[in-house]
Amino acid sequence: MISPVQLKALYLQACEVELQAFKPGNVSVYADGHGMTLADFRISAEVSSTPLCNPGYCLGEKIFYAVKATREAVGCNTNLGIILLCAPLIQAISQKNVNVTMREALHQVLSTTTIADADWVFKAITLASPGGLGSSDQQDVNNKAAVSLTEAMALAAAKDRIALQYVTDYRDILDFSVSLYYNALSRWGDQNWAAVAVYVNFLCLNPDSHIERKYGNQYSEVVADKMMLVSKALSDTDHPDSILPLLYCIDQDLKAINVNPGTTADITVATVFAVFLEDFIESSNEFVKTNK
Q1: Which domain holds residue 147?
Q2: Cys-Cys link to 153, which of 46, 48, 163, 238 (CB 3.0-4.6 A)?
């Protein structure tokens, strides 16, 4: 069984890896952007980690109190998507039985969310006030929930890639992005560049829902084309540091038009976190086997 202290350490490590990864258009150690700084994200990770890893909170409470702590610390929405994606992973590994896989445990969490969870999350989203949220005819977050959290996410899944994960058992992450991460890690032996590979290759194939909430599909092809350039450059080199000039150029281009692939950055954090949790489970199982 994983402890809250171990969970917190893995969550913070995943958040830091994502910040160390040069993600064009997004905030990283290489560049601030969109009115947010590297320090904002590091503070947000730290203050959100305690409520997220609190074993006494239900799923919705984890999300609400993590968002509340972030809002009080940095005064802006730095990590709503990260929190929404990481909370079910934390809940899953915290409740996981020995003979159950991480994927099975996650399915159990997502298939048993409650109306109370939805209420907590609606309050969290209202508090975070993400860009381009607007209003909805069904299960508007400004009102009381009448369905479970997963049912509410299903209503938003067509327009929001994070909501989609709740109704597909994290298919994008567990069936696509995790493999991207491991392949890149095997090739370069570097967690940060593996995270870059996840971010870039995901954007090659999937429009970013944060961008599309704000602009429709106006920039979707532009972003995909730029990420294809990066993907090809990455595939052609054994030394990813050599493509830094290209990343700086594309980062400046995207920020000049205020385009931020924020949802994909959130998915990158969740991918790295899922990898760390799987690795923890595997190492724990190995320890048990060798000490029988």
Answers
A1: 4-290
A2: 163
